[in-house]
Amino acid sequence: MNIVSVIKGNKPLILAQPHGGTHVIENVYHRLNENGRRLADTDWHIGHLYHGLVEDITVVQSHIHRYVIDANRGPDDESLYPGQNTTGLCPLTDFDGKAIYLPGKEPATDEIGERRERYYQPYHNALNQQVKRLITAH
Fold this sequence. Notes:
The chain has 4 helices and 3 strands. By secondary structure, the protein is α+β, with helices and mostly antiparallel strands. Strands 1-3-2 form a 3-stranded mixed beta sheet, covered by helices on one side. The relative contact order is 0.23.
């Protein structure tokens, strides 16, 4: 399974899509509770919404669901919106604050690090490669 897809365009514009992924790895899916298995915080139609909006742009898409790893967070898991309802790098709740894991099945620190390396980093590597490519081209 591809973790990330890149559609290379020539215009100096990159559309990053970290939240359209719907794939939940089996080890995580079986630990999600009923609420988590609904995948409510998915940007289900983000690809369709932006498709064709601007021609010849680069698109970087994560195929991994944000409940596995939220690629739109800093690698240090620092809150993007201090004081507001938010989720972390490996969310434990949905955006309504409801638990998404079965009790006692939340990811441990070492697992979060593994997910960061396996699913988060490839997305950011792809973004960085495209930024460098387009800077060089333009």
